[in-house]
Amino acid sequence: MSSELSRRAGAARPAAPVRLIHLGLGDFFRAHQAWYTEHAPDGEEWGFAAFGGHEASDLLAAQQGLYTLITRSAHGDRFEVIATVSEAWPATDHDALLRLFRAPEVAAVTVTELGARDHPDVREDVAALRTDPAAPVRTTRGRLLAGLAARRRADAGPVTLVACDHTAGNGAILSRLLYEMADEVNQELTGWLDENVSVAATVADRVTPHTGPSGLRAVAEATGRDDRVPVTAEPYAEWVLAGRFPAGRPRWEDAGALLTTDVTPYEHRKQWLVNGSCSLLAYAGSIREHATLAEAIGDDACRGWLERWWSEAGRHLGRAAAGLDAYRQALLERIANPRIRHSLARIAADGSRKLPERVLPVLRAERAAGRVPEGAALILAAWISHLRGHGAPVSDPRAAELTVLAAGPPAEGAHRVLDALDPELGADDTLVAAVRDAATRFDRVRVP
After folding, report:
1. What does the alpha-carbon distance between residue 448 and residue 46 come to, in Å, rounded to a whole number?
2. Residue 306: alpha-carbon gap to chain centroid
3. pTM value?
4. Residue 447 — pLDDT band, cuts 50, 70, 90?
5. Closest CA to 80 of 252, 250, 208, 233
6. How much of the chain, in percent, has pLDDT values that exceed 90?
7. Is 253 helix (H, G, I), strand (E, B) or coil?
8. For residue 132, what are the CA distances in angstroms to 120, 140, 181, 190, 347?
């Protein structure tokens, strides 16, 4: 029979004082920001109060904030109790939120998801906060602003907001959305934000697949403890931060995080090498009848295309090119991990949205340098072949338009799709020829 997972049962150290707040209780936060804090040498001094859904917060509160992290490598699982969540609250507990934001010892607030920018609930939150700055609100942005307004009223001192959204430019986005809302609620609050709130931008990376019933059983069998809310993650983790922390922070850098003055080169590295590689393998790999990233990377042809793409992208990474060989090797190991299943069909979706960020910046830089980017051309060619019915099923917001454009002779289809993606690409005869030739080979023999 499994034993209880709790501090009172001796499963972990006493709860650390709450000096950090996180809005959200998702798997990524628990496998990433909480994990880095757990592994910081001063982690015992920094506890999170985390706000999430009722079920997750209730289950975590019953376990006194403890949960098991299952680190899933290609060779097996490792089980670790994470103790850095000191308090778990439902997001609807507005009184607890305001009380914690008023605490002078709280130094930073991490935010993973801000939600839709124009959601109707945001308008309702603005109206509520105009009437009463302590009024209950419904959105993450509203809760953040209500908490900061409470901190201002309590004169609790400076605080840093840490943007952990996976969107490029997350710090600037968080700052803009917060100020836009503050301007509508109370312009005096905007002035206080200028003087007391810093926003840190980040690049955060770690795959956290869903933990189902088999994960709960695995934890019980391996540890002898009954954990209702374990989380699963790959071994790899990355966290790059740029920003000021006037009230202090954990020593995240000693747990492997990188502190820098500008995260942009590292955003590019993740967007181009990680996400761009996934797109390449999703289209080319599925054309070669593979179903997952791990299968595709075991194909010598796919591996060769990937290396070609990495060589092109690596030339444009600036300071993030330092240590690139180790980064590429780690990425190969991540992709090849068969126990973290990445579906190529899922990755292939929404190419018209993804490729302009993942591929086109490198393509344009290569063309500006007078080179024909063979790796980028291969990705675009595989995507066009995918639009023509090869490989993974097409799931794209522009599917009706693009599949028609891609149809017909490959030479004409390649030109039409590139022109729809960006007229400058369609006007580049040398690039069109390279993409056309590769797409033709994909169509005919599935092996360029």
Report:
1. 53
2. 22
3. 0.95
4. very low
5. 233
6. 93
7. helix
8. 19, 17, 15, 16, 44
Q: Does 258 share its domain with 280?
A: no
β-strand pairing of 76-82 with 67-73: antiparallel
Q: How many CB atoms lie within 10 A of CB 253?
A: 14
Are 284 and 422 contained in the same domain? yes
Do 284 and 162 share a structural domain?
Answer: no
- DSSP strands (E only) in 279-424: none
Name the nearest CA neighbour of 392 among 341, 344, 328, 339. 344
Give the 3-state secondary structure of residue 111: strand
CATH number, position 384: 1.10.1040.10
Tell me, what CATH number does 242's domain have? 3.40.50.720
Which letter does DSSP use for residue 319 in this model? G
Q: Which of 203, 228, 262 is the last residue of a domain?
A: 262
- The residue among 229, 262, 295 that closes a domain is 262
- DSSP letters of 28-90? HHHHTHHHHHHHSTTGGG-EEEEEE-HHHHHHHHHTTT-EEEEEEETTEEEEEEE--EEEEEE
Which is it for strands 18-23 and 47-52: parallel, antiparallel or unpaired? Answer: parallel
Residues 359 and 273 in one domain: yes
Query: 298 and 420, same structural domain?
Result: yes
pLDDT tens-place string over residues 164-223 = 989 999 999 999 999 999 999 999 999 999 999 999 999 999 999 999 999 999 999 999
**Do 116 and 27 share a structural domain?**
yes
Give SS3 for 273.
Answer: helix
Is 432 strand, coil or helix?
Answer: helix
- Decide: 287 and 345 in contact? Cβ < 8 Å: no
DSSP annotation of 413 reads H
Neighbouring C-beta atoms of residue 5, cutoff 10 Å: 25
Cβ pair 242, 200 in contact under 8 A = yes
The total domain count for the chain is: 2
- Structural domain boundaries enclosing 314: 265-445
| Alpha carbon distance 35, 80 (integer Å) | 10
